[in-house]
Design brief:
With 697 residues, the chain is mostly helical. Among the domains are: 108 residues, Winged helix-like DNA-binding domain superfamily/Winged helix DNA-binding domain (Arc Repressor Mutant, subunit A, Orthogonal Bundle), CATH 1.10.10.10; 134 residues, Tetratricopeptide repeat domain (Serine Threonine Protein Phosphatase 5, Tetratricopeptide repeat, Alpha Horseshoe), CATH 1.25.40.10. The strands form two sheets. A four-stranded mixed β-sheet has the order 3-2-1-7. Strand 1 and strand 2 form a beta hairpin. Helix 29 runs antiparallel to helix 30. The termini are far apart.
Length: 697
C-alpha cells in the first residue's frame, strides 16, 4: 500500500494526532493479524515522524507495530511488550506479540530450541478463544502452524485446517491464502501431493483478489513454486517466482519470504542448468544471511546449492554442501533443516559411489524421518537404498527396499522422489521388476552395476574397476564368460559349456571343473574380503548372467536387431543407438575358438542388416541424409555388399545429388572388379543409369 486510507489522511490534514493514534492502535493490530505488513508500515511512517519531532512516546500498541515490522524482530522487546500487555489485560495485543515471537524465530534463523515458550503461550491463549475475535484466533493458529512446521508437520497440517475455518469466520481472504500456503509444505513432506494440488488450484482463484495483501500473495507463490519444483515443473516455478520478486517493494517483505523466494528460484534455475544465474542468486543470499549468522537460512541455502549440484551432475560438491547444511542446521536448532540436509547427504554419497556409507547413513535417518512425519523423505531414502543395493549386486535386498518404499505413501499417489527426476524411479524399478515387452536400455549402460563390452576387446566395468581381456589371469574363466555371452547369456545348459570347454574330459570331472570355474568367475568382480556379487546364476544345471545386474553390449545389440528383423522394429532413435554400439567386431582379436569366430560373423551380418533397416527408416521419414555416415561405416566393414552401395546411391538420388550417386557406383564397381572379378549387379546399374551414367553395364 502506497497511500493512507481516507480517514487517516483526514486526521493528518486536520492535525488530529490523538485520533490518528487511537485509530491506528486499533486497526494496526487487525492489520497485523491479517499480516498486512505493508499497510502497517505505510500508516506508521507519518505518526512516527510527528511523535519524534514533538518528543513524545508512542503508545504500547504502536511500539509493538513498529518493532514487529522491522526486518529482524527483537525477541527481548517482544518479551517486554508481552509482560506489558498481560499486565494491561490486553489479550488481543498479547496474541499479536506471541505471533511476533514466533515470527522472530524465523527472522533470526537460530536458537529454535529456545522458542517453545512462545508456542506454549499461544496454546494458552487458544484455550481462551471465546474471549478473542475469530481474526485473532486465526492469526494465532497461523503462527502455531508456522512453529509446528519445524517440530510436527502432521500437527501443522491439522492446525492449517483449523486456521482456514477461522479465516473464513473472520472474513479474511488473506489468512485463507496463508492457510493454503502453510498447508502445502506438510502435505508435500508427508507425501500427500495429490491433496496439495486441489488446494493450490482453489487458492489460485482468490490469491490475486484486491483484498489479499502482498505478503500473503508472496507467501503463497513461494509455496506454490516449491510444489511445482517437487513435481518437476521448473519452468512453471521460475515463471511464478519471477513475478514474485518483481512485486513492488518486494525488498520490504518479511525476511523468510524474501529468502525462500530467491532460494526456490535458485532451484528452478538449477533444474534448467543455468549455473551462472544460480551463482548470482547464491551470492545475493550469502550476503544476506552469512554476516547476520542466520543459521537456518544458511542451512537452507547450502541445502539448495547442494540440490543444484546434485541435479547438474556434481555429487562431490553436493556432498560438501550437505555437510555444511547439517552443521548450520545444528547451530540453528532446526529439526526440519537437519531432516532435509540429511537426505541430500545420503544421495550425494550414493552418487559418488560410496554405497556402503550411503546405505548406513540413509537407514540411520529413515526412522527419524518417519517419526517426524517426513514420509516423502523416507520414501525417497528407501528408493535410494534400493538403487544402492542393486548397484552392489544385492537384488533381493533392493527389491525389499523398494517394496518398503511403497508402504510409506498411498497407492493413489504418483511416486515422486525429492531431488531426483522421474526417470530415476523408473530406472530403479525396471531392473528389479522388468516387463516382458521391454527392450534393453541401449543408451544407458551406466544404470547397471556391471557393464560388459565385447565389440572390440573384451572388458568389464564395475564400480571404479575395469578388467581387460589382455590382463585376464585365468584362461578358463575368460572363455566361460565369452561362451555365456555367445550363447545368449540366459539358461545356457551345462552340457553346452562342457562340450566346448572340456570336450575330452569325463562327465563328472568336467562338471566339477565347470562348477569351480563358475565360482572363480563369480568372485572375479568382488574384492577378496567381500561377499561375491551374484552376477552369475545357476538353476537346474543352467547358467545365466543376472540381467538385472549386467549390461552386455553384444546381447543388447543382438536383441534389438533380431526384433527389427522379425518386423517388431523399435523406434528409429533406439535402432540408431543400437547400431552405434557396434564399435568394432565381436571380441575382434580372439580367434582361438571357432564358436567365437562364427558369432562374430553373425553379429557382423546383423550389423549390416541393421544399418540397411536404419537407412530405410530414415528414407521413410524424409531424413535419408542422416543414414549416410552409418552406411559409409558399414561399407568400410563390408566393402563388397551391394545392398549398402545401393541404399547410399538411393539416398543421394533422393536428395538431388546424382554425381555423388555415380561416385558411389564407381567405388562399388572398382571394388567388386578388384576383389571378385565381377561387375555390379542389376540394381546398382539401374540406379547408375537413373543418375545419368548411360554407359553403366
Amino acid at each position: 500500500m502506497d497511500s493512507l486510507e481516507g480517514k487517516y489522511q483526514h486526521y493528518l490534514n486536520k492535525g488530529l494526532l490523538e485520533e490518528y493514534i487511537a485509530e491506528l492502535s486499533f486497526d494496526g493490530i487487525i492489520w497485523w493479524f491479517n499480516m498486512d505488513i505493508m499497510r502497517i508500515l505505510c500508516h506508521l511512517a507519518p505518526v512516527e515522524h510527528i511523535i519524534e519531532e514533538e518528543g513524545q512516546t508512542l503508545p504500547a500498541r504502536l511500539i509493538f507495530l513498529k518493532e514487529a515490522t522491522v526486518p529482524a524482530i527483537s525477541t527481548d522487546k517482544m518479551e517486554s511488550l508481552y509482560r506489558k500487555f498481560m499486565d494491561d489485560g490486553d489479550l488481543e495485543a498479547v496474541a499479536a506479540v506471541c505471533g511476533a515471537g514466533i515470527a522472530s524465530l524465523w527472522d533470526h534463523g537460530r536458537d529454535f530450541r529456545s522458542y517453545g515458550h512462545w508456542f506454549d503461550r499461544i496454546e494458552e491463549l487458544l484455550c481462551q478463544k471465546e474471549r478473542l475475535t475469530p481474526l485473532c484466533v486465526a492469526s494465532l493458529l497461523a503462527f502455531k502452524a508456522l512453529f509446528e512446521l519445524d517440530t510436527n508437520i502432521a500437527a501443522a497440517y491439522e492446525t492449517c485446517r483449523k486456521l482456514r475455518i477461522y479465516a473464513e469466520k473472520a472474513g479474511s481472504t488473506s489468512l485463507s491464502v496463508y492457510s493454503a500456503s502453510f498447508a502445502i509444505y506438510p502435505l508435500m513432506w508427508m507425501g500427500r501431493l495429490s491433496e496439495a494440488e486441489p488446494l493450490i488450484k482453489d487458492t489460485e482463484v482468490i490469491y490475486n483478489l484486491p483484498e489479499v495483501n502482498p505478503v500473503a500473495r508472496a507467501y503463497f507463490e513461494v509455496a506454490e513454486a516449491l510444489y511445482y519444483l517437487v513435481t518437476e515443473e521448473p519452468d512453471r516455478a521460475e515463471a511464478i517466482l519471477g513475478a514474485t520478486i518483481s512485486m513492488a517493494k518486494f525488498d520490504k517483505q518479511p525476511m523468510t519470504t524474501y529468502f525462500l523466494a530467491y532460494s526456490h528460484l535458485l532451484l528452478a534455475l538449477a533444474w534448467k542448468g543455468d549455473r551462472d544465474a544460480v551463482e548470482q542468486i547464491a551470492h545475493r543470499l550469502r550476503s544476506l544471511v552469512v554476516p547476520a549468522k542466520k543459521y537456518f537460512h544458511q542451512a537452507y541455502l547450502c541445502y539448495s546449492l547442494g540440490i543444484a549440484c546434485l541435479v547438474t551432475g556434481e555429487p562431490h560438491r553436493a556432498l560438501i554442501y550437505s555437510r555444511e547444511a547439517l552443521e548450520r542446521a545444528e547451530l540453528s536448532g532446526s529439526n526440519m533443516a537437519s531432516l532435509m540436509a540429511a537426505l541430500l547427504k545420503g544421495q550425494a554419497l550414493a552418487d559418488t559411489g560410496r554405497y556402503e556409507e550411503a546405505a548406513v547413513w540413509l537407514k540411520s535417518w529413515t526412522k527419524r524421518w518417519l517419526n517426524s512425519g517426513f514420509r516423502l523423505f523416507a520414501f525417497t531414502a528407501c528408493v535410494e537404498l534400493s538403487r544402492i543395493y542393486y548397484m552392489q549386486g544385492m537384488v533381493d535386498k533392493a527389491r525389499k527396499a523398494l517394496e518398503e518404499a511403497h508402504t510409506l505413501i498411498s497407492k493413489e499417489e504418483k511416486p515422486i522422489l525429492l531431488h531426483r527426476t522421474s526417470d530415476f524411479f523408473d530406472k530403479t524399478v525396471f531392473p528389479l521388476f522388468p516387463s516382458e515387452c521391454h527392450v534393453e536400455l541401449i543408451a544407458e549402460p551406466q544404470t547397471k552395476p556391471i557393464r560388459i563390452y565385447t565389440f572390440g576387446d573384451l572388458r568389464i566395468e564395475t564400480g571404479n574397476r575395469t578388467i581387460y581381456d589382455r590382463k585376464w589371469r585365468s584362461k578358463l574363466t575368460n572363455l566361460l564368460l565369452k561362451a555365456l555371452i555367445v550363447f545368449g547369456g540366459s539358461k545356457v545348459p551345462y552340457e553346452v559349456l562342457i562340450d566346448i570347454l572340456w570336450p575330452d574330459t569325463d562327465g563328472d570331472m568336467a562338471e566339477n571343473n565347470l562348477k569351480v570355474t563358475i565360482s572363480r568367475l563369480r568372485k572375479l568382480l568382488s574384492p577378496s574380503d567381500t561377499k561375491p556379487i551374484q552376477w552369475i546364476l545357476v538353476n537346474k544345471k543352467k547358467i545365466s548372467l543376472a540381467r538385472p545386474l549386467c549390461w552386455i553390449d553384444s546381447i543388447a545389440f543382438r536383441e534389438v536387431i533380431e526384433k527389427t528383423l522379425k518386423g517388431k522394429a523399435p523406434d528409429t532413435e533406439l535402432l540408431k543407438k543400437t547400431i552405434e554400439l557396434y564399435k568394432d567386431d565381436f571380441i575382434a582379436n580372439d580367434n582361438t575358438a571357432t564358436w567365437i569366430v562364427k558369432h562374430r560373423e553373425l553379429l557382423r551380418e546383423y550389423y549390416t542388416r541393421g544399418v540397411l533397416h536404419l537407412g530405410a527408416c530414415y528414407r521413410k521419414e524424409g531424413k535419408g541424409e542422416h543414414a549416410i555416415p552409418y552406411l559409409d561405416q558399414a561399407i568400410r566393414k563390408d566393402p563388397l555388399n551391394e545392398e549398402l552401395y545401393a541404399m547410399l546411391m538411393e539416398i543421394y538420388l533422393d536428395a538431388g545429388y546424382p554425381s555423388k550417386a555415380i561416385r558411389i557406383y564407381r567405388e562399388a564397381e572398382e571394388r567388386l572388379q578388384d576383389e571378385l572379378g565381377i561387375e555390379p549387379g542389376f540394381r546398382l546399374r539401374r540406379l547408375a543409369i537413373k543418375g545419368g551414367l548411360n554407359r553403366a553395364k
